[in-house]
Amino acid sequence: MHTLVVAEKPSVARDIARVLGAGERGDNCLMGGGYVVTWALGHLVTLKEPEELDEKYRRWRVEDLPILPERMETKVIKKTRSQFLAVKKWMNDAQTEKIVCVTDSGREGELIFRYIYEQAGCTKPVSRLWISSMTDEAIRAGFEALAPSSEYDALYRSARCRADADWLIGMNATRAFTLRYGVLLSIGRVQTPTLSMLVKRRREIDAFVPKVYYTVRADFGDYKGVYIDARGEKRIEEAQQAQTIAARVTGMQGRVTRAEREQKTERPPLLYDLTTLQREAHAQLGLTAKKTLDIAQKLYEQHKLLTYPRTDSRYLSRDMLQKVKNTLQSYDGELAPLGKAALGYGVRLTPRVFDDDKLTDHHAIIPTGKRVKSASLTADERGIYEMVARRLAAAFYPDYRYDALKVVTQVGEDAFLSTGKSVTQAGWKDVYRDVQRTKRKKEDEEAPLPPLSEGDERLCKSAKAVQEQTKPPKEHNDASLLSEMEHAGRQIEDEALREQMKDCALGTPATRAAIIERLIQVGYVRRSGKNLVATPKGMRLIEAVPAEIASPETTGRWERELSEIARGKDSEARFRQGIARLTAFLVEQAGKAPEVAFDPEERRGRKAKKVRDLGIVCPACGQGKIAENSRSFYCTRFRDGCKFTIWKNELERMGGPVLTEKLLRLCVEKGDVRGSTGVIHYRKGCVSFTPADGMP
């Protein structure tokens, strides 16, 4: 007898097998030590397409919507069917005593395994491996602490609800609005409100009208200042007024009337979750959200240098204190001094780092402690690893402290403001001293201020009026859009509801990058340098769909409910009822959707199946012609509402033949066509069959 271990990917299976001592190659598996280790290839099983539930859904028709199956059925993915059959064989093998699920420790990983398990018809007991690191030590510790799969049933229910909801909204809304506008329009529960954020920003930029204003900048020799009025406002509306002020103060004696110094402190930043890592990697390394996730996943799975990346937590558990010390001690190369310094400052149980109450399924992303010297990393991989390593070290450095300086110099009746900063303790910012990019600052903030006190006098050597203008909002990029998705509740206009929904998000850390890429793939968004810009098609879609699917409010609320279901604290039935109601509502609204002019476009993806016009007038509408594709005969005016369809296999269930063009022409010409197996009857566009043994 043996234990079957099912991993999500072959690379993970190889690592697990090596630790378990299963080094013998078998049938799509590795064997040894009482274990058989096999793998999926990501998803092996998925939800069926509508036409696989009922042949009538093969044609997109408004009257068939909404599609609300009583039970969501799954199927084996054709491309990876051979691997599924191998896993199924091992699951149901008489020698398999029990099963260990080692797919990714998260909602999607749980769904991948449960789909396979159910599709295979397996009933054997299952345990779950739940780890945040792929080091040998973590794998061994995980196998010593396996939990019954039933402990993750709530997580699976949440995953299943998410998959079903995406199917129902996507399939129905996409069909309904595509039929309404005659252009393929992909609509999704998460992707559409995400697109709405980009469209909103694009509209703000398009509507922006720049406004010219003026500032007056004065040079006092060893420092500079900018004119402020009695309200502290720097902007001057009229050029003449600005020029008058500049001329009035030039060559005049000024006197310091206010010199303030305020001590300020910045705590070390929190550790990385995935979304924060993606945002900062975009800013520092210019990487897209997807690229950052791919690299972090590779550093986790292949190089074993980082812990599990698909996390939304920025904290560690209290029992990880010694592990953190060991990890910092393992830093090598140019990171070694940072690890040593952090240990010197003292690694202790500070709640800013170690907080069990703020943990989710996984802790924050940190290095595993494996030395990086021997790893062969690309420049981007090294960049991501060093970001995470520096962040862990910075967490134990002292605070960054500085004095914020504010000086007002009075020149006659005019006042000039000067601001600056005097660092008193570099603290954690020392970690980034050699990698931080120099940020451009305003002219009056660039130079440090000299020591100034009230009553000090300075000559205004020169002053000039500077013309400036207001700037439009910036286009979103990966970093800013990820932030908007993470805090989608901020988009809600109603103040009371916004406070209630402040923790709502669009998607999860693991899915947000894929959502952005999907918007680009379907032509709603394009990249312009580092920016993400809504296309005309994307903007028109948001004009066409109702607010209920475009607003982040609905989706954010559902994401919160999915999280509650995963924790066993919310009703799955209520969530499903809400999704069904929205699905029906979207189909209804598509029929009432406004007139929006989408540009005609060629279908993307696979080549269209060959269609032939048979030159026979449609018997149903009398205007179109009968056309043929690989599966049916139908009217060329089907987009205009003609319902004429004859399926080629329609007579098979009655014992008749498969219809061919020749048979259909004979039917149209003669009405009845007699053959050796029976008679085909044709009346007003409908066919039926009487078998030979049923004829008089």
Spell out the key features of this protein:
single chain, 696 residues, alpha+beta, Rossmann fold, Topoisomerase I, domain 2, Topoisomerase I, domain 3, 5 domains, seven-stranded mixed beta sheet, seven-stranded antiparallel beta sheet, 22 helices, 36% helix, flat
Describe this protein's structure.
This protein has 696 residues and is of the alpha+beta class. The chain has five domains: 2-145, Rossmann fold (3-Layer(aba) Sandwich); 176-206 and 475-591, Topoisomerase I, domain 2 (Orthogonal Bundle), CATH 1.10.460.10; 212-267 and 400-469, Topoisomerase I, domain 3 (Distorted Sandwich), CATH 2.70.20; 274-394, Topoisomerase I, domain 4, CATH 1.10.290.10; 612-694, no CATH class. The protein is built from 22 helices and 26 strands. The strands form six sheets. It has a seven-stranded mixed sheet with strand order 2-3-4-1-7-8-9, with helices on both faces. Strands 15-12-13-14-11-10-16 form a seven-stranded antiparallel sheet. Strand 2 (24-26) and strand 3 (29-32) form a beta hairpin.
